[in-house]
Amino acid sequence: MKKKISIFLSLVFILSAVFSQMTLADYDPKPTNIIRLNYSSRTVNIGKKFELRAFAVPYDYEDEFLRWTTSNRRVVAFEDSDRTGDEMDFVAKKAGRATITCYIPGTKIKKTCRITVKAGGKAKIKVEDTHMDIDIGEWENIGAKLVGGSYKNRKLSYRISNKNIIRVRRGRVYGKWPGYAKITIRSKANKKIKKIVHVYVGRD
C-alpha cells in the first residue's frame, strides 16, 4: 500500500512540475495593445524637457517591450540613450514639429504624439547662479544656456575679467587664485544678449 501511495505522489509531483513549466512557457508578458499616450499633441518651448507616458494592456505587461521613436531628432531628441519603457523623457531642441511614436515591436500597434516646438519668447541667457563661490583647484558648472528666441546658433562665448583668478572651459569655471573675477557670457548669434556671472574664489 505504501509503495502505491509513493508511486501516486511521485506521479502527482511530476505532473505538477510539467504543468507548471507549460504554464510558464505559455505565459507571455508582452503588451497586447497600447490604449493611449498621456498626450496626443503638445506644444513646448525650446530647451524644455518633457515626459510622455504610454498606457498598455494587460496590466502586468513588461514595459521593456514598448519602444519609442522621434521623426525629427533635430527638433525633439531623447534625453538619454534608452528607447524602451512606458515612460520616456525628451528635450525640445529647436523650433519645428516632430511626431513621437510608441509601438510594440513586431506588430502594427502604435500610438503617436504630435510635438510643436516654439521659440518661447525673447531670447536670453540663463545660468544656474549669477554669484558663485568656489575654492582653489575646484571646477564648477556655470550651467549657461540660451533660451527662447529663434536663433539656430545656440552657442555662447565667455569673457573673463581676471584670468589670474579663474579660467573657463566648456561651460565650467576653475578657481586658480583667491579673489574676484567677472564672467561675461554672450550669445554668438547676437552679441547684445549677455549675462554677467560674479565668481569669488577662496581657499578651502
Q: Can you walk through the features of this model?
A:
- The chain has 204 residues and is mostly beta strands.
- The protein has 1 helix and 17 strands.
- The protein has one helix spanning 2-26, and strands at residues 33-37, 41-45, 49-57, 67-70, 76-78, 87-92, 96-103, 110-118, 124-126, 131-135, 139-141, 145-147, 156-160, 166-169, 172-175, 179-187, 194-202.
- It has a 4-stranded antiparallel sheet, with no helix packed on it. The protein has a 4-stranded mixed sheet with strand order 2-8-7-4, with no helix packed on it.
- The protein starts with a helix and ends with a strand.
- Mean pLDDT is 88; it is low at 22-26.
Strand content: over 45%
Helix content: 10-25%
Mean pLDDT: 88
N/C terminus separation = 85 Å
Number of helices: 1
Going by helix content, strand content and strand pairing, the class is mainly beta
What is the H/E string? HEEEEEEEEEEEEEEEEE
Which properties best describe this structure?
about 200 residues, mainly beta, four-stranded mixed β-sheet, 1 helix, 17 strands
Which helices and strands occur, and which strands form pairs?
Layout: H1 2-26, E1 33-37, E2 41-45, E3 49-57, E4 67-70, E5 76-78, E6 87-92, E7 96-103, E8 110-118, E9 124-126, E10 131-135, E11 139-141, E12 145-147, E13 156-160, E14 166-169, E15 172-175, E16 179-187, E17 194-202
Concise overview:
The chain is mostly beta strands. It is built from one helix and 17 strands.
